[in-house]
Amino acid sequence: MMDRRFRFGVIGGPGAQWRELACRTEELGYSTLLMPDGLSLLAPLPAAAVAASVTKTLRVGTFVLASTVRMPRTAAWEAASVAVLTDHRLELGIGTGNPWMNRAAVDELGMPETTPAQRLALVEQTVRHLRELETTAHTPVLIAAGGPRSRKLAGQIADIVTPANHPLADRQEIARIVAEIDAAAGPRADRLEYLMNVLIVGDAIPRRLAPLAGDDIGALIAADSLSLLRGTPRQMADEIQRRRDAFGFSYITVNELFIDQFAPVVELLAGR
């Protein structure tokens, strides 16, 4: 596995203060601003284009598109368009979606019912169409890899991989997942970049994040969860370095709620 330099991103939901969040993200030294997908949110690809328009070097992306919400060629066309319009600062994140997103795709958008295998095939098709549409620069693709088949696909076609593991997954499980993805990648394993999304920074779980992280900070602490970072900026920086050494995670994202709290860690580690 390549010894990659650290970079950091913020995951934020587009809203009234979106332009300000983009500027603040860049000002604090983060390298990316990523948007989740959801029918109750603003569409992430137009939001990415807006964020890029008010910043100079900030990379923008999706975390992550649900493959069931858009036809593969449509998703690829929109992503390729945004990549060009942002001077190729786009990172396209995609995955198979969660159960409620996939249900909403059927009920609200009229998309067809899909099996897990079909949803994964849609991910592959979207990436294939994106590569066909690209004429110059290569758009990095991030795949959220959950089960064995998605890990295999991520190893084969992704540039960036984030394990879609449960917040209480132990470190042995994370090591096994990374090894599985590396094995699927074969000779290209050294080119993969591993992203760890830190759900919680500090000693409390904000109510807004409880659906993702649970509401028991003690359970995360007891599990030694990689979804949690605590302590002083120096202590958190040291822990992040240990995680890179152990698992290869060099791309770290945090929720926008922690953008200022985590900024001293970014200052300590970005580019190192």
Q: Which SSEs are present, and which pair or pack?
A:
Blueprint: E1 7-11, H1 18-27, E2 32-35, H2 44-53, E3 59-62, E4 65-66, H3 72-85, E5 90-95, H4 99-109, H5 116-133, E6 141-145, H6 148-157, E7 160-163, H7 171-185, E8 193-198, E9 200-201, H8 210-213, H9 217-222, E10 228-229, H10 233-247, E11 249-255, H11 259-269
Parallel strand pairs: 1-2, 1-11, 2-3, 3-5, 4-5, 5-6, 6-7, 7-8, 8-11, 9-10
Question: What's the short version?
Answer:
This protein has 272 residues and is of the alpha/beta class. 46% of the residues lie in helices and 17% in strands. The longest helix is centred in the middle third of the chain and has 18 residues, at 116-133.
Task: Considering the chains and any ligands shown, give keywords for the structure.
8-stranded parallel barrel; TIM Barrel; oxidoreductase activity, acting on paired donors, with incorporation or reduction of molecular oxygen; two-stranded parallel sheet; 11 helices; alpha/beta; 272 residues; Diverse_substr_monoxygenases; Luciferase-like_dom; 17% strand
